């Protein structure tokens, strides 16, 4: 049971907001400290909630009421979003989720001790019992925070802003764009099969798949050129699956030879 004194103390850092279905509700992440603003949210089904990231490096991670500061299985996760500048109306790193039902949604920042120091939020928390204030108090006493073991955002749309850079006139560039980097996994297969007194050697190129690697930010539009990071390391990881495909190709070739 939570004491009235503790709940009153927590109420001082509660910022509420409500939204109607089909609307966009904006939440700041890390603005003015380790806090979400608002952090006690009421939203109808269909509401899009956009989390906008401030410095330094925060997450939006879904949790549960009973186990705050730890990820909910199959819950949403923004990944860690480092930034060195405050977002603007035209240039911001954001993570957007859609409210699909009226069940309470609990979330936290997985950076360091941010969760334990109050960087938590709730969507459609009840007015009594498992309230946002009660969740905050549980988070304060939670064990060390953990995050999902994934490198990509899940359960929402992550958009990464380009870092502002000075233009020729010295003004800051604004706006950003993203590009999906893809790679085609190819290999040259050499198959040697001996059957009876004959040896058959077959060498041929094969394309297995086009693999989406990541969505990366491009430089803000300043009139100059843009560049994208190399996807060679990701392609190498994807190519690790080629052995299995090569084995299948050999099996097909062997079956064909058996018919000669």
TrEMBL record:
Q: Does the keyword Signal apply?
A: yes
Query: What name appears for this protein in its UniProt entry?
Result: Phytocyanin domain-containing protein
Write out the entry's keywords from A to Z: Signal
> What start and end residues bound the annotated signal peptide?
1-21
Record the organism.
Rhynchosporium secalis
Specify whether Signal is a keyword of the entry: yes
Looking at the UniProt entry, the stretches that span the membrane are none
Superkingdom: Eukaryota
């Amino acid at each position: 049971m939570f004491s009235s004194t503790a709940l009153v103390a927590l109420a001082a850092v509660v910022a509420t907001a409500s939204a109607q279905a089909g609307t966009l509700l904006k939440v700041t992440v890390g603005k003015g400290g380790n806090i979400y603003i608002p952090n006690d949210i009421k939203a109808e089904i269909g509401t899009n909630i956009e989390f906008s990231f401030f410095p330094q490096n925060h997450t939006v991670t879904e949790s549960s009421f009973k186990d705050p500061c730890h990820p909910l299985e199959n819950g949403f996760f923004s990944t860690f979003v480092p930034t060195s500048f405050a977002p603007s109306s035209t240039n911001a790193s954001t993570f957007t989720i859609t409210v699909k039902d009226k069940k309470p949604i609990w979330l936290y920042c997985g950076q360091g001790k941010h969760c334990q120091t109050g960087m938590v939020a709730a969507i459609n928390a009840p007015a009594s019992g498992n309230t946002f204030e009660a969740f905050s108090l549980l988070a304060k006493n939670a064990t060390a925070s953990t995050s999902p073991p994934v490198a990509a955002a899940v359960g929402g749309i992550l958009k990464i802003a380009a870092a502002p850079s000075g233009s020729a006139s010295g003004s800051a560039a604004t706006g950003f764009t993203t590009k999906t980097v893809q790679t085609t996994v190819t290999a040259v297969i050499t198959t040697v099969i001996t059957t009876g007194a004959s040896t058959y050697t077959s060498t041929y190129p094969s394309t297995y798949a086009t693999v989406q690697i990541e969505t990366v930010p491009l430089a803000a539009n300043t009139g100059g050129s843009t560049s994208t990071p190399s996807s060679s390391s990701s392609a190498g990881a994807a190519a690790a699956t080629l052995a299995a495909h090569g084995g299948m190709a050999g099996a097909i070739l062997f079956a064909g030879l058996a018919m000669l």
